Amino acid sequence: MITLFKLLSAWPLWLLHGVGAFLGWIVFVVSPAYRKRFLDNANLAGLSWQQKLGAVAQSGKLVAELPRLWLGQSVPVVWEGGEHVQEALAKGRGVVFLTPHLGCFEIAAQAYAQRFGPQGKPMTVLFRPPRQAWLRKVVIASRQRPGLQTAPTNLSGVKQMIKALKKGESVGLLPDQVPPQGMGMMAPFFGREAYTMTLSVRLVQQTGACVLLVWGERLSWGRGYRVHVQPMSITLPADLRGAVTAVNHAMETLVLQCPQQYLWSYARYKQPRDLL
User: If we measure between CA atoms, which residue out of 53, 61, 73, 49 comes closest to residue 23?
Assistant: First the structure.
């Protein structure tokens, strides 16, 4: 499999995206469970059929582009809102970047590392290694690069991220990722209660870090990516549930900017056993 990944990493992005779009539709058609979860989640957000159809192909592109992003040459990236990053870093309080499963979330961290890492402001991302040994080696190698560090999804990783923020560095989180048992709370996401991580809020409350919303738009015809950055429109409330709910609402706002590129097949409403 590693050999296959290396081979695919040399393919042009437009070809990978074309193959990915085709495979996305294959999975959607042949897997009833995948299709049901995809449509159930998309319906909660009120997507039109045109948006749903576009999202099917985009989900396949997300998977197909990984060999190039992990092992291949760099891809074209443009920034929209990069000045917000520079302003936040200049405050010296650290920056918490929040991104949902929207577009290419891999490229957002890589682009930050390439642009701001040389300034001595690396990014630490929360990372749960894949269970497959061969894939674990590939992913770990791709995410340990200049300006980009990883933190495990445990207490040690939390301490690592707090330390990074206190040094004025950045951390990256996917707050719509279902957290391990005991690390989240129920909060609404597109009108349905979802087990939501509290870590992003706690990091901000404990360190006073700035919060920025970011996502990597996948451009058409393999032209590369556009990294969007914007500050949160409101200050996080002091109470934990209110703050977690505000983060979920911010993620909804980002998703609705380009719903075709959200990963609607993700099991967002999965719950720990003790909540069932």
Answer: 61
Query: Of 51, 53, 67, 52, whose CA–CA distance to 17 is shortest?
Result: 67
Using a cut of 0.85, tell me whether the model's pTM lies above it.
Answer: yes
Whether 13 is covered by a domain: the verdict is no
Q: How far is CA 170 from the centre of its chain?
A: 15
| SS3 assignment, position 166 | helix
> What CATH code is carried by the domain that includes residue 96?
3.40.1130.10
What letter represents residue 217's amino acid? E
97 SS3 class: strand
How remote is the C-alpha of 150 from its chain's centroid?
14
CA dihedral 128, 133, 139, 141 (to 10 degrees): 120
pLDDT interval class at 104 (50, 70, 90): very high
